[in-house]
Design brief:
With 464 residues, the protein is mainly alpha-helical. The protein contains 17 helices and no strands. The protein is globular. The chain crosses the membrane at residues 12-33, 53-73, 80-108, 114-131, 143-164, 170-190, 202-221, 227-249, 270-293, 305-322, 334-354, 360-384, 396-418, 424-445.
């Protein structure tokens, strides 16, 4: 019996390793490309708006397809959905490496985003269902969040090294062997989950893609054409109108991709809002710093990655430590600590920005890395409110909100940068980042207070 239990534990650990590797590779791709934007632009052409589309072609597709991917996870089984996502992601990565034009590269990034969207909710669902006990699940989610931290931490440095040694195409080829290793571990050590038939919401999916693309495109065009340009206004107005239509459709269709009933649970709604703010700040800040270091400070890809290393190293460390912190102080406090550090770091960068040297910025960027304490904590909160037969859909909604925040962060904060990435515009971008982080802190404090009041009320109710 002891040997059987040991084998089962080992198999679960290897299965979790495969799940985390798959999550790591799609997180790695969200940051590794930032330090290569300069060399890509020199090779294929393109100004700052083009660089934003290289980043957001991936993030936007990732965000908009995550909702349907959650349904896929429930419909075909999470392991199958995970493997499908890995295969699409690897093919998209190979296409990026072989791209001969900026258009082809952006299209290939869209393919990568589609694969990442299929994989993400499946990874969360597999963790949740493989570790049903609350204590084991919390530890597994800590490791899962740590994999994300490693991806974020390794991206800029690994990207800089690969670009310097082999050229920018290598940053995409590195994904292929990692995806293959993840797939092998999954096939051998992770069981398929139960299938739940949920019809696909085609109108909702089309509206989600169109709305996010319009809003993101509108913010990106402000950088080149200004806020009052006809195209900018048209895209932003269209995005808002489509978002309204999306809400109406989701309230009226029989099987919505975003079930409005999920948002009646206030803890889940708060976790979703915090996730949106978190990725808005994280993705937008990394993009702005990479552009600033390359264009204003004149750093190449390798030195840009090294300049970001202290921040990303702390990000990875904090993501791993988050599990222990959550066990001691709870999810809400971990979120407050992380986002408060982000607020302080962003404020310091905004004050230092005029004429700031790379060395002067590094201590403040380290504070941004501490925000990773919030990642596993907010994920655990969201999943704790998921119905057992809707884990895929729930994780899809939660992660779609995060990736939507990431796409908008690159677009909005990128729009606050002038074309040369000067320090003046960096100040505006990080003032906005600090305000967003502070909003997240307020949301977490409100959620914590509400939960404490609810617990006290339950404890003092008669008959309990």
């Amino acid at each position: 019996m002891t040997l059987i239990a040991a084998d089962a534990t080992r198999s679960r650990a290897l299965g979790l390793t495969g799940i985390c590797l798959g999550f790591l590779v799609i997180t790695l791709d969200a940051t590794i490309v930032n330090v290569a934007l300069g060399p890509i632009g020199a090779d294929l052409g393109g100004a700052l708006p083009a660089a934003q589309w290289i980043v957001n072609g991936y993030t936007l597709t990732f965000a908009s397809l995550l909702l349907s991917a959650g349904v896929l996870a429930d419909h075909v089984g999470s392991r199958t959905g995970f493997l499908i996502g890995l295969a699409i992601f690897a093919l998209g990565s190979a296409a990026c490496a072989g791209a001969g034009s900026l258009t082809v590269l952006i299209v290939a990034r869209v393919v990568q985003g589609a694969g990442a969207a299929a994989l993400m909710p499946c990874s969360l669902a597999l963790v949740a269902l493989s570790f049903p006990e609350a204590h084991d699940r919390r530890r597994a989610l800590g490791l899962w969040g740590g994999a994300s931290g490693i991806g974020l931490a390794a991206g800029p440095v690994l990207g800089g090294v690969l670009v310097a040694a082999l050229g920018w195409r290598a940053i995409f080829l590195v994904n292929v062997p990692i995806a293959a290793a993840a797939a092998l571990l999954l096939v051998r050590h992770v069981d398929e989950t139960r299938r739940h038939a949920h019809p696909l919401d085609v109108p909702g999916q089309l509206l989600a893609v169109a709305g996010l693309a319009s809003l993101t495109g509108g913010f990106i065009t402000t950088g080149s054409q200004g806020w009052g340009a006809t195209l900018t206004v048209a895209l932003l107005v269209a995005g808002i109108a489509i978002a309204g239509a999306f809400v109406i459709v989701e309230r009226s269709v029989a099987h919505p991709m975003v079930d409005p009933l999920l948002f009646r649970e206030r803890t889940f709604s708060t976790a979703v809002a915090i996730g949106t703010v978190f990725n808005f700040c994280l993705y937008g800040a990394i993009f702005c710093l990479a552009v600033y270091l390359h264009r204003a400070q004149g750093l190449d890809a390798l030195h840009t990655g090294l300049a970001l290393l202290p921040m990303t190293a702390v990000t990875g460390t904090m993501a791993f430590l988050s599990g222990r912190l959550v066990s001691r102080v709870g999810e809400w406090r971990a979120i407050v600590v992380g986002l408060t550090a982000g607020t302080a770091g962003a404020l310091l960068i905004s004050l230092e920005a005029p004429g700031a040297s790379t060395t002067a910025l590094i201590p403040s960027t380290v504070l941004l890395g501490v925000t990773a304490l919030a990642m596993p904590a907010m994920t655990a909160l969201a999943l704790s409110r998921a119905p057992r037969d809707r884990v895929g859909l729930t994780s899809g909604v939660f992660n779609a909100s995060r990736q939507t925040g990431g796409a908008l962060g690159v677009a909005v904060l990128g729009a606050l940068l002038v074309s040369d990435g000067s320090s003046v515009s960096l100040r505006a971008a990080f003032m906005a980042t600090a305000a967003a982080y502070a909003t997240g802190v307020a949301l977490a404090l409100s959620g914590h207070r509400r939960e404490r009041v609810g617990s006290l009320a339950s404890a003092t109710s008669p008959g309990l």
